[in-house]
Amino acid sequence: MDVTKFKHHYSIRVRNYEIDWQGILHNGNYLLYFEVARVNYFKSIGISIDERLINGIIKIVVVRNEIDYYNSATFDDELTIYTRTAKIGNSSIICEGIMINEKTKMPVAKNVNTMVWLDPRTNTSMTVPEDFRDHVRKFEGSDCDMQTPTIEV
Amino acid sequence: MDVTKFKHHYSIRVRNYEIDWQGILHNGNYLLYFEVARVNYFKSIGISIDERLINGIIKIVVVRNEIDYYNSATFDDELTIYTRTAKIGNSSIICEGIMINEKTKMPVAKNVNTMVWLDPRTNTSMTVPEDFRDHVRKFEGSDCDMQTPTIEV
Amino acid sequence: MDVTKFKHHYSIRVRNYEIDWQGILHNGNYLLYFEVARVNYFKSIGISIDERLINGIIKIVVVRNEIDYYNSATFDDELTIYTRTAKIGNSSIICEGIMINEKTKMPVAKNVNTMVWLDPRTNTSMTVPEDFRDHVRKFEGSDCDMQTPTIEV
Amino acid sequence: MDVTKFKHHYSIRVRNYEIDWQGILHNGNYLLYFEVARVNYFKSIGISIDERLINGIIKIVVVRNEIDYYNSATFDDELTIYTRTAKIGNSSIICEGIMINEKTKMPVAKNVNTMVWLDPRTNTSMTVPEDFRDHVRKFEGSDCDMQTPTIEV
């Protein structure tokens, strides 16, 4: 699985209580892992979304998740999760994640996650804030931003 | 959202510890809810998969999940989850789920879940067992089964 | 196990994803179950704590939990949780919970939970609000309240 | 809080989805954190209990948990958990855990956990295996083992 486009990675070790009755990482935990990595990704590029989310100053909701599961993981496996922003639209952002098992170097899962900014007062979608766009553009390049202004020459 | 094709539903009440720092049901719980409903769906059509899964006699793994989130849910909301089998392939099965908020009657989320049967000895895909097909065909009709034998006349 | 002092009960069915690699309900879920039952207990006696907690108007924190595990539970078991307030002190409340397996009628676990009211502005303990005391006294009798005023004759 | 008796520690960073509607680490996660640290403690002293647990060769169940909560933790806090074996009885073992917030150096919580060995065939308690005792004695010293043979001179 090609991770060359990804500049951020985060490691998670599978915990005992996340193992299910089949002896493998329960499928519900993958979304949580991808989210933990994504939150860390945003933090690492200068976007701290936690306090403003808790206080209701900004409101970002997940509107779609796709997960493909390639190989199971089990207790104590170290998983590296690669995260990147694939696209910023008007009011939405699409992030991709790839999970690799460090022991086997095999892909474990892939995630495509779409989030939408909501106006906290009206609960309707709003334009992705400019400072957020800036941080992502600086890290990922401007290709991912559908609203990147055309530079006139 | 059209639930007329769905013959099974299951109710879940949102628990306090499932509410996140934004005051809404955390997105990771939706997959768990859909799964709880799906396990109940299989049980209700005569397929008890629990003990054979625990003992490793059968091995069924999730290979893909899609979730669309339409409206957030919050503490104590009663959610009705409609589940059906959309398709049985050679070694895979696709289930659909729709979640409705009983208070607002609004759709909350939709799930498309693909599972694959693995041979427990080789971990390679195997044909969906005939008794499993039978139970699903009886409940859903034979349209969903790609291997339903053509009835010759 | 004697549940005669308990006037409230709540039922929970064990979900598949709560089963651990030993094939039994993971020990971490018991606390969650007792809490779900306790939140329902408070709701049923007229105390709705959810919105005020989310909005930070009141702040109640758990300061101690004891759990004794008597018998394991497994998938699809129906557990009945009995909850009562054992004692209201100046700024704290002690609740007891007993969990019974409906299939075997055997006790599964027991919980003693202590919570403390905090002043949201200072994060220091404050007196349990009078309206809260009233609701509990009405349901449990005044024996549990260490501050119940002596009725003079 | 005195951690001088503890020779093992393990770090956990609080994840976003573990934060509750009050904006703090939900009380149910503490038990999970203490367990993750304890499993790592056993691994680090040479006791790998995972596969034998999954395969049902050994059966160890939690019979009691006590948690005292001293200070709340929140998103992204780094918590260090100190773990030690306090006592090995005939068929039981008592472990202690102390959780410290690395940012504030304040104690967050304390756990006393009692586990019992069960004979997998009969589900009745059995003597703690000698190889397990040996590993613990070597790491903790023989004081913790109630069955440490008196060395005759």
What does this 3D model show about the protein?
4 copies of one chain form a homotetramer. Chain A has a 5-stranded antiparallel beta sheet. The N and C termini of chain A lie far apart (38 Å). Chain A has helices at residues 28-44, 50-54, 130-140, and strands at residues 8-13, 59-69, 78-88, 92-101, 107-118. Chain A contains 3 helices and 5 strands; from the N terminus they run E-H-H-E-E-E-E-H. Chain A is globular and about 45 Å long. Helices cover 22% and strands 33% of the residues of chain A. The model of chain A has no long low-confidence stretch (mean pLDDT 91). By secondary structure, chain A is α+β, with helices and mostly antiparallel strands. In chain A, a hairpin with a 5-residue loop joins strand 4 and strand 5 (107-118). The A-B interface holds A 21-24, 27-28, 31-32, 35, 50, 53-54, 56, 59, 61-70, 72 and B 21-24, 27-28, 31-32, 35, 50, 53-54, 56, 59, 61-69, 72.
